[in-house]
From TrEMBL:
This is Uncharacterized protein. It comes from Helicobacter pylori (Campylobacter pylori).
Amino acid sequence: TLSRSLQKHLLFLKFLFKEFDFLDSLQARLNFAKAYNLEFVMPSFTQKKMILENFSHPILKEPKPLNLKFEKSM
């Protein structure tokens, strides 16, 4: 039967489902960001400091832009 043949590959199928869910969530985030003209903040490990200028969190209504400077390791 079909269930017996799939039982042999159960661990592999679980792995596939988990990875598909992960990729699907990434794709959803990218599409959401693209639709609302948002950007992702990626750390640069070559520089010691990170500066965010006029950062506004997208989930807040009428957010006030913030300027943040991270000059020391946290």
